[in-house]
Amino acid sequence: MKNIRNFCIIAHIDHGKSTLADRLLQSTNTISDREMMDQVLDDMDLEREKGITIKSHAIQINYRHTDGQEFILNLIDTPGHVDFSYEVSRALAACEGALLLVDATQGIQAQTISNLYLAIENDLEIIPVINKIDMDGAMIEEVQDQIIELIGCKPEDILLASGRTGLGIEGVLAAIVDRIPAPKGDPEAPLQALIFDSVFNSFRGIIVYYRIQNGTIRKGDKVRFVSTGQDYEADEVGILKLKMTEKKEVKAGDVGYIITGIKNAKEVKVGDTITLSNRPTKEPIKGFEEVKPMVFAGIYPVNTDEFEELRDCMDKLQLNDASLTYELETSQALGFGFRCGFLGMLHMEIIQERLEREFNQTVITTVPNVSFIAYTTKGEKVMVNNPSEFPDPVKTERIEEPYIRAQIITKPEYIGNIMTLCLGKRGILINQSYLTTTRVELIFEMPLTEIVFDFYDKLKSQTRGYASFDYHAIGYRDALISKMDILLNGEKVDALSALIHRSRAEDFGRKLCEKLKELLPRQQFQIAIQAAIGAKVVARENISAMRKDVTAKCYGGDISRKRKLLEKQKEGKKRMRQIGNVEVPQEAFLAVLKLDD
Amino acid sequence: MAGIYLHIPFCKQACHYCNFHFSTSLHYKPELVAALQEEARLAAEQFPFPPGEAVHTIYFGGGTPSLLTLAELTQLLTAVRGHFNVDPDAEITLEVNPDDISEERLKEWRDAGINRLSIGVQSFFEEELRWMNRAHTAKQALEQVKKAREYFNNITIDLIYGGPGLSDEQWHQDLEQAKALNIPHLSCYALTVEPQTPLNKMIRAGKVPDVDPDKQSRHFLYLMQWAKENGYEHYEISNFARPGYRSRHNSAYWQGKSYIGLGPSAHSFDGKSRWWNIANNQAYIRSLQEGLIPFEKEELTGVQQLNERIMIALRTADGLDLSHIPSLEKTQLLKAAQRHIDAGHLVAQENKLRLTDEGRLLADGIAADLFFEEIK
């Protein structure tokens, strides 16, 4: 055990985590040059393209130290987005140390800091590494100062590296061995293994990744997952090289995998403890939480007859993403679909894109909303995850909405813009502090619902990209929330209903009506677009009737071309949804996501 | 067989709105005329029309058929008459431009057997003709049509409305002028901006204002009313005729009858399939010099045939005859039509569906709504 080191890399998106990881694997011959593909650890297409790791993975590195000793270094990769902070915390809990990787040209970002705090809370040894030191615009000294201020280390503790050229990689490997403590634990004690990730394999079922705190896990053992109380047989156990390597046993301190034939991802919960059925641990590992979705939206097939196909895809998708929840939902406008729960807006985007790319589905996603709590006059407490569940205002005593603590790190010159943005989003400034002379940290408490609608894009544009954002939920607070409906020629479009703060309703309604006016094609009659709260219309737009839709010439040579044109037009219309007498193209259902000022 | 169309793909100059197939180089005219004769011979042999079926109409279109010399025109008519069973009373139309009209040519055409002239007037206003890049002047339009009227009774003129410069008043005057000239047939087209035309480029470059759909519909509504008051029957979206002067050739297209098109880009139809010649003069000529008609063909499915019927018939005053449509389809059709009937755009009577004047403005969308879908 004294020759094992378990570590992760804390870094902001694009700060070079994957490239550095590649170099660690290459320089230790964990992976041959032949096998080398850029960013090996990010093996989903989408991750590669977005340049972020969505699902964490792990890999074992065999390293011969300068003194000749052999070491096992388990690198546990962590997801790099705010929506996945719980998963990050569990991956950190499986490690004794962390590389704090900071881009020499960018400096410290918000997400780095929040993950760093998580690592410090978990008592991890932090090894600061400044990456990309070979780049033009590297501000090594400034970044050094930032790091020293942040973690209080000495200048000589900070390593300099370049993942791109391989510079400083040996030093990083040596520091992992020298500075990160070996894991502690008793291989003979009752089994305690922390689940930090799982993946779905269509042949083997769910493969669970864990870190053993105490005890030993052997092939053939009867194991129990503490949170669910379910027992399984360990069909196969092993360690994670570039590919899975089967072993007879995996002992305390090490990182490995187990295959038990589980088919349903819901049975495997990140943060759960694996123990032995016949000799269970008395104490599960601390920190386990049931992951709760934060953002909800409907997902519908573009063609109503493709519902069954979509259902299959959702089932498959959930197999390797247990944080996705969904249930059947019907909409008058869109037919059968699913009400889905996501960890956040990025998670929602990822699911949408995976459905489209991996499963070849074209879907309509409806207006997202957060989860509200309604207290009825009868004293009942109702969770509202869908505008259609919004209770009758007369029978509602009050509504509560979820709040977040938002941490934004930026340059001092953007403080004004960020204040305007966040205060405009009902944020309350809690703290403002200079991390360094060029880095300011702002802490706001804000309603989560405000970051669902174009917050990220605005933050980006208001700061020219020089702001990083992180958040976590801090509970529910009273709010004046109303249900706003959109009506087309008097017919409600359920898929466009939104739950919105009263102070926002008018502005939001007006923008939505204007956007719909742009997106709805002229039809043979006038269309009235209205936004209404209850019976009160808060905004209205009209689309005048189409005046002329007739081809001038239709002779011998025109007939085929014209028929094909009209057939295509008809095909396009088929993809539209009929609301009363109005035909609505799919883009209109996404209008709400594209509102701008 | 209903008709034979001959495409004469040459023009003196290019009109800015035109997307038909033509060339402004007359260099290959003799070869093309020879190729057309060869095609007439081959077509008569190869195409599966009932043998000996009479040809009721011949139509010289273009391009500018008035660029043909008398000899060329005669050769072509002789070839068609030689290879097909042409009805002695056949309607034989020649499209002509006002600038090609003279007493001498009018006599030639009449003597060659042409009995209907289609004159590309487009407008009686000079500024309109200029931006269109027409070869004739307003004065020529007026005088030459007057002259033509002395030699031909059966005359149609083309007029274009709804263009960026044409005022409501000018449009009314164009129509009054046609009436004053006692023209028994009018083809009135809403100016259409086709892709790949100089007009399209001019609009995109901001040199010419885009067409205004409100103005176009205003002009069209006026036209329909004017036609009623002046004894012109509105028998197809863009066609108006005094009694007895409907175009027999074009009516055949709209009745779904079969036709043969000769010349580059010309289309043929036998009721079930449609084929069209290559739209390239030299390639067309070369191919026929080797004894091959260069065409592409599409077979129409039952649904496509029915959809074409719906699309074309709705454009006509006769309307869509439901008596030949199977009952299942008829029920579906009437169901789809109901919305448009309720909106006052369609009328169902005497087992026929017809567009109202308001409905004619929206004919395309309505037809698309009534289309049937292929069963997959």
Describe the structure using short key phrases:
heterodimer, A: 597 residues, alpha+beta, eight-stranded antiparallel sheet, six-stranded mixed sheet, 34 strands, B: 376 residues, alpha/beta, TIM Barrel, Arc Repressor Mutant, subunit A, 2 domains, 14 helices, globular
Overall number of structural domains of chain B? 2
Number of helices of chain B: 14
Rough shape of chain A? globular
**Helix percentage range of chain B:** 40-55%
Q: What name goes with the CATH superfamily of the largest domain in chain B?
A: Aldolase class I
Low-pLDDT residue spans of chain A: 48-56
**Rg of chain A:** 27 Å
Largest interface: A-B, 25 and 47 residues
Largest sheet of chain B: 9 strands, mixed
Distance between the first and last residues' Cα of chain A = 58 Å
Largest sheet of chain A: 8 strands, antiparallel
Strand order of the largest sheet of chain A: 11-10-16-7-8-15-12-13
Write down the oligomeric state: heterodimer
The whole-number mean of residue pLDDT values of chain A reads 88
What is the CA-CA span between the terminal residues of chain B? 33 Å
**CATH class descriptor name of the largest domain in chain B:** Alpha Beta
DSSP strand content of chain B = 15-25%
